[in-house]
Specification:
Blueprint lengths: L1 H13 L3 H11 L3 H14 L7 E2 L12 E2 L14 E2 L18 H5 L11 H14 L2 H7 L3 H14 L3 H11 L8 H8 L4 H4 L3 H8 L2 E6 H13 L3 H10 E6 L6 H7 L33 H20 L25 H15 L12 E6 L6 E6 L5 E6 L4 E5 L11 H4 L9 H4 L9 E4 L6 E6 L5 E6 L3 E6 L5 E6 L5 E6 L5 E6 L3 E6 L7 E4 L5 E6 L5 E6 L3 E6 L5 E6 L5 E6 L5 E6 L3 E6 L4 E7 L5 E6 L5 E6 L3 E6 H5 L6 H6 L12 E6 L7 E4 L5 E6 L4
Parallel strand pairs: 4-5, 6-32
Antiparallel strand pairs: 1-2, 1-3, 7-8, 8-9, 9-10, 11-12, 12-13, 13-14, 15-16, 16-17, 17-18, 19-20, 20-21, 21-22, 23-24, 24-25, 25-26, 27-28, 28-29, 29-30, 31-32
Main location: nucleus
GO cellular component, one term: transcription factor TFIID complex
Subcellular location: Nucleus
């Protein structure tokens, strides 16, 4: 608003930052004389303002990590950066806030504003008003209970009214929704002002506004009530700490709201999911598939269109030409195809010709790889695209690679032996391998903590592993040695994954950011910041232009690799997210979490389109079949479940109204989509993989308890 802008301009002028002042004034279209005329009003209305925050919010309304200008240089504010005034940052006792969200500054917004003995009365008054309002408004207004409860409690604690805070917590914590229980447990431990400093959950709640999506009618009703009652305490919290995303139209039902809420910072703003996303697939290079012999000719001729079908036709898209939703071919630089890659693509097409078309009448066979006696503690699994190798990451910091075909794993010969080889011979690639090293298992040593994520490169020459030691390591599968240790994360790295085109890879960890790397750069190319808690899982979109990240803040974000912007924020899970899978056609995303639910998302419209209930424990593995007809999910409840993806995504209601307001209508019963449940004796499922012919491979470690 205007007053805020003028305050910012004044601050810049006082600090002799003329260039920044000019840029901001041009962007805000404020003239010099406007500034002078507004000074008096600002001086009287905002005495506490002495620090300004420079934020570069991601395009999608993402928090973008505000930081207060401690010593602002003109170069801090180049044009692409927007300047925002941050109500959360005050100068405390004349000391300007440091670059990090300084705790005392963040907390000082909880200055004393009301009689502590009346807090319970204020809250119960509002509670009574909401419970007595019309049914259509009650569900929407009930969303206020949790954020108001937290902020009022923290305000009491901060102002050292400990007994009132304790009484307030005990009286009202039982009224909150069950999915906030973990957050409330953390909150209950904050009983003194000293506890609040350095508490991450606390800081998150304070620095990011809690987002509520409410219809205009419900909002007017609330506003009128609070103004009539002159309940300034609650009104101040609503204005200062909540972001109310108002939409025109019918209020949402309890069921519609429950489907979307539950994350650490409320729902996503509708603006956050408006950016255009190129979710289509890149055009595949054309190859002539050489036929092996007469027998296969007929099969292959039939099979060729089949190969194209899964690529373009799966789940709904009819185009055989360039996908209209695909990004430009050169939007991001992708590695050139080597001869070996072309050969592999030809093999892939031949396999695809023999692929089984799955569906409700034709379910896949499942082959389960059980890790027996895995006393080292199995923490991660991956399988190569051609299903020839399997890797396990273990808690004893080792990475173990097995061959699952009769062909054993061999290393390249020593330099002395290589010099004797005739480089012109046809079988040179075979000759460079040392038969003496052949074995079914290779153990890779190098990490100094449990290995939480592993990923094979598409060409099967490299392997990534990430660990509690804060590093991501790149291993050669020719020499079975470590080539690079990528250091960028300061804390444990929970997941890593290669791009479907190789060269790029992504990692996510406890430091709440995901990083995009290229194998030949030791520094990350992009840092994706915005999550409010650990980034627990990462996935590349099939076209490699986007990356999905799941987090312990209970949200899923989609990031644009080109510019690092957050283009989608999906809320709805009630626990940390541990698995992600894109459909083969790139249109949909499936996510699984500790709440035992699989949620389905339409990426183009930014909407939730399905909810699959059935698992009773965390879902660690999700995978679509090669043609996208079936979604397989694997869980800690020792089961693999198969779901009908075609049926889940047909007849989607994605009209403009639904997209604009988020009035989603999920089918009542997801059991109609469940095609089968397959139990193991006592093996949690940690990885799933469909072979090129649609055999489903599953993996996990047998647990004796």
């Amino acid at each position: 608003d205007r007053q805020t802008l003028v305050a910012v301009l004044q601050f810049l002028r006082r600090s002799n930052l003329r260039e920044s002042e000019e840029i901001l004034r041009r962007e805000a279209r404020l003239l010099g004389d406007d500034l002078g005329s507004s000074v008096a009003t600002v001086a009287s209305s905002s005495p506490g303002v002495a620090a300004v925050a420079a934020v570069q919010p991601g395009k999608g309304g993402d928090r973008g990590g505000w930081s207060c200008c401690h010593s602002v240089s003109a170069s801090s504010f180049r044009l692409p950066y927007k300047l925002l005034f941050c109500a959360n940052s005050f100068a405390v006792g004349g000391v300007v806030v440091e670059d990090q969200p300084d705790v005392s500054a963040v907390l000082s917004a909880y200055n004393q504003q009301g009689d502590p003995t009346l807090y319970e009365e204020y809250y119960s008054g509002l509670k009574h008003f909401i419970e007595c309002s019309l049914d259509c408004h009650r569900a929407e207004l009930s969303q206020l209970f949790y954020p108001l409860f937290v902020h009022m409690y923290l305000e009491l604690v901060y102002n050292q009214h400990e007994s009132e805070a304790k009484s307030f917590f005990e009286r009202f914590h039982g009224d909150q929704e069950c999915y906030y229980q973990d957050d409330l447990r953390v909150l209950s431990g904050l009983t003194k002002k000293e506890h609040m400093k350095g508490n991450e959950t606390m800081l998150d709640f304070r620095t990011s506004k809690f987002v509520l999506r409410i219809s205009r009618d419900s909002y007017q009703l609330l506003k009128r009530h609070l103004q009539e009652k002159q309940n300034n305490q609650i009104w101040n919290i609503v204005q200062e700490h909540l972001y109310i995303d108002i939409f025109d139209g019918m209020p949402r039902s309890k069921q519609q709201i429950d489907a979307m809420v539950g994350s650490l910072a409320g729902e996503a703003k509708r603006e956050a999911n408006k950016a255009k996303v190129f979710f289509g697939l890149l055009k595949e290079p054309e190859f002539d598939v050489p036929l092996d012999d007469e027998d296969e000719e007929g099969e292959n001729e039939e099979g060729k269109p089949k190969k194209k079908k899964p690529k373009k036709d799966s789940v709904g898209s009819k185009s055989k030409k360039q996908d209209p939703n695909a990004p430009p071919q050169n939007r991001i630089p992708l590695p050139e195809l080597k001869d070996s890659d072309k050969l592999d693509k030809v093999m892939n097409m031949k396999e695809a010709a023999r692929r089984v078309r799955l569906g409700p009448e034709c379910l896949p066979s499942i082959c389960f790889y059980t890790f027996l006696n895995a006393y080292q503690g199995l923490t991660a699994v991956d399988i190569t695209d051609d299903s020839s190798m399997i890797v396990g990451g273990f808690a004893d910091s080792t990475v173990r690679v097995w061959s699952v075909t009769p062909k054993k794993l061999r290393s390249v010969k020593t330099a002395a032996d290589l010099s004797l080889i005739d480089k012109e011979s046809d079988d040179v690639l075979e000759r460079i391998m040392d038969e003496k090293t052949a074995s079914e298992l290779k153990i890779l040593y190098g990490h100094s903590g449990p290995v939480y994520g592993t990923s094979f490169s598409p060409d099967r020459n490299y392997l990534l592993s990430c660990s509690e030691d804060g590093t991501v390591r790149l291993w050669s599968l020719q020499t079975f040695t470590c080539l690079v240790g990528y250091k960028g994360h300061n804390y444990p790295v929970w997941d890593t994954q290669f791009s479907p085109y190789g060269y790029y890879f992504v990692s996510g960890g406890h430091d709440r950011v995901a990083r995009l790397w290229a194998t030949d750069h030791y520094q990350p190319l992009r840092i994706f910041a915005g999550h409010l808690a650990d980034v627990t899982c990462t996935r590349f979109h099939p076209n490699s232009n986007y990356i999905a990240t799941g987090s312990a803040d209970r949200t899923v974000r989609l990031w644009d690799v080109l510019n690092g912007n957050c283009v989608r924020i999906f809320t709805g899970h009630k626990g940390p997210i541990h698995s992600l899978a894109f459909s083969p056609n790139g249109r949909f995303l499936a996510t699984g979490a500790t709440d035992g639910r699989v949620l389905l998302w339409d990426i183009g419209h930014g909407l939730m389109v399905g909810e699959l209930k059935g698992h009773t424990d965390t879902i660690y593995a999700l995978r679509f079949s090669r043609d996208g007809e079936i979604l397989a999910s694997g869980s800690m409840d020792n089961t693999v479940r198969l779901w009908d993806a075609v049926k889940a995504f047909e007849d989607l209601e994605t009209d403009d109204f639904t997209t604009a307001t988020g009035h989603i209508n999920l089918p009542e019963n997801s059991q109609d989509l469940l095609l089968g449940t397959y139990m193991t004796k006592s093996t949690p499922v940690v990885h799933l993989h469909f072979t090129r012919r649609n055999l489903l491979l599953a993996a996990g470690a047998y647990s004796s308890q």
